[in-house]
Amino acid sequence: MTKLLLVRHGETVDNVNQIMQGQTQGELTVNGIKQAEELAKVLRGEPINAFVSSDLKRSVDTCMILAKPHALPVVQTPLLRERDWGGFTGRFIPDLKGEIWPDDVESLPDLLARARQFLDFIQAHFEGKTVLAVGHGIINKAIQAVHLGKEMREIPRMTNAEVRILDMKREYAYLRPPKPP
Fold first, then answer.
1. Residue 53's beta-bridge partner residues?
2. What is the DSSP letter of 71?
3. Residue 34, CA atoms < 13 Å, CB-side half-sphere
4. Which residues are catalytic?
5. Rounded Cα gap, residues 181 and 47, in angstroms
6. Reported pTM
7. Which DSSP string corresponds to 3-49?
8. Which of 18, 6, 39, 25 minimizes the C-alpha distance to 143?
9. What is the DSSP code string of 95-139?
10. Cα radius of gyration (the chain)
11. How far is C-alpha 22 from the chain's CA centre?
């Protein structure tokens, strides 16, 4: 069975400043680097066969730190990118409360479809292996929701450098289709 260690990137400057990052590159804080280094120590003895990351800098940097003790390369994929927040990107999060969502925000069905594509990618390329994948808060929630056949609101928020373990079976993508918006 394929095992997926799903990780959220370390703390970023925009996390601290409550800025909606979306698909911007992002920069780890000193604390974010420390979070990744501490997690790397915890995972050092784990038998991990592959490291996969979102192609956004904050995730790549986190994944490189985690992969270093294993001397393995990091495979990057846009499938693990954070949700595209469109016109909300770069804005102060508390200011967004009550605002009407812009039309250019990635839709929930599109986000869930991308999560399914990511899980299919893992099964197709790493079947039977243990894979550590570094993504972002919302895409990681979507991946877990698809895998577990749950609504996203049922998935607890991930903190920076947190790990969730998913034992993958082929039928995950067919448990429950997403509800229309």
1. 76, 134
2. T
3. 3
4. 9, 82
5. 40
6. 0.91
7. EEEEEEPPPBHHHHTTB--TTS---B-HHHHHHHHHHHHHHTTS---
8. 6
9. GGTTPPPPTTSPPHHHHHHHHHHHHHHHHHHHTTSEEEEEE-HHH
10. 16
11. 12
